[in-house]
Write a structure and sequence with these properties.
The chain has twelve helices and 13 strands. The protein is α/β, with parallel strands linked by helices. It folds into two domains: 144 residues, Nitrogenase molybdenum iron protein domain (Rossmann fold); 137 residues, Rossmann fold. Strands 7, 8, 9, 10, 11, 12 and 13 form a seven-stranded mixed beta sheet that branches. It has a four-stranded parallel beta sheet with strand order 2-1-5-6, with helices on both faces. It has a two-stranded antiparallel sheet with strand order 3-4. Helix 3 packs across helix 4 and helix 6 runs parallel beside helix 12. The longest helix has 23 residues. The radius of gyration is 20 Å and the shape is globular. The termini are far apart.
Length: 311
């Protein structure tokens, strides 16, 4: 069967392409932008949130929408119907991260005449990501491609771990997924930290990202701080740093005093549970073990925070 695939989550689009099915993609979400060639595809969703707002305002909008039992994204049923997909891939792990399952089901029931199969992913940890890759591959009739991709990614993480271990130390790190209000990165990020030769002192593997007070950050006082806001690149994240940096506790943190605060591209790497988790681990290894690790991500995947809005 020749599938017609619509992906409504950026990480799933990357999985589909890594499996060799980019030519079967006929539609994407408004956030799907990698590989760049998928930009040619029709966009099937949009955001209800004013994404250009400040971090606190975005958080308030998301909380208000979710509190009403709504998804923060819209699905365009008319576009879906015209594209006539056989498979639609979405995610249930987090309604802030992707178009919700109920929105896709509503759109399909409302109008989509092709009656596509809906594949819903639910990644909370690295093993879940491997499982999702296998699920997508099986849904597309190529389970062997899924196994091969998982093997390649595990080998990549093994290589990162081996290089990071050469230094013989395991620095502590705090990974910040949102700046205002402060949130610590959870889910698969603590597992990536472990692979990169560090100790995550804020997040918990396999659990949703949680709220964090500046006092808790100060009490943990990690050797390294990596800022990786969900959905933001380095430049956008840097614009949100001044209020945090103005807090009296901030300059007393060891990572700040030692120049070991790093801005990372959370949007392209850490927030996407797909093939680029290997690059995410490489970025962590770069900032945790600079004497032994240089995977070539400086300036693109991470920069050192210099105390100004640019990062």
């Amino acid at each position: 069967m020749t599938h017609r695939i619509v992906s409504l989550i950026a990480s799933a689009t990357e999985i589909i392409c890594a499996l060799g099915f980019e030519d079967r993609l006929v539609g994407r979400s408004h956030e799907c932008d990698h590989p760049p060639s998928v930009g040619r595809l029709p966009v099937c969703s949009s955001s209800k949130v004013e994404v250009g707002a400040a971090g606190r305002a975005i958080d308030d909008q998301v909380r208000a929408i979710v509190a009403d039992g709504l998804s923060v994204y819209r699905v365009d049923a008319g576009i879906l119907d015209r594209l006539a997909p056989t498979v639609v891939i979405t995610q249930t792990q987090c309604e802030v991260c992707a178009v919700s399952l109920k929105d896709v089901e509503a759109a399909v029931c409302e109008l989509v005449g092709s009656r596509p199969r809906i594949v819903s992913l639910e990644p909370m940890s690295l093993p879940d990501i491997w499982s999702d890759i296998r699920t997508v591959a099986s849904a597309l009739g190529a389970p062997e491609r899924g196994e091969a991709l998982v093997d390649r990614l595990l080998a990549g993480l093994d290589a990162v771990q081996a290089r990071a271990a050469a230094e013989g130390t395991r620095p502590t790190i705090g990974c910040i997924e949102w700046i205002d209000p402060l949130m610590a990165a959870g889910n698969w990020v603590p597992e990536l930290v472990e692979r990169a030769g560090g100790v995550d002192v804020l997040g918990k593997a396999g659990e949703h990202s949680g709220g964090l007070s500046i006092e808790a950050l100060a009490a943990a006082d990690p050797d390294v701080i990596a800022v990786m806001p969900c959905g933001w690149d380095i430049e956008r994240a840097g614009r949100e740093m001044p209020p945090l940096a103005a807090h009296p506790a901030w300059p007393r943190l060891s990572a700040v005093r030692n120049g070991r605060v790093f801005m990372t591209d959370g949007n392209q790497y850490f927030n996407r549970p797909g093939p680029r988790v290997v690059e995410s681990a490489e970025i962590l290894a770069d900032v945790l073990h600079p004497a032994h690790c240089d995977f070539g991500h400086r300036g693109r995947g991470w920069t050192r925070w210099t105390g100004d809005a640019a990062g």
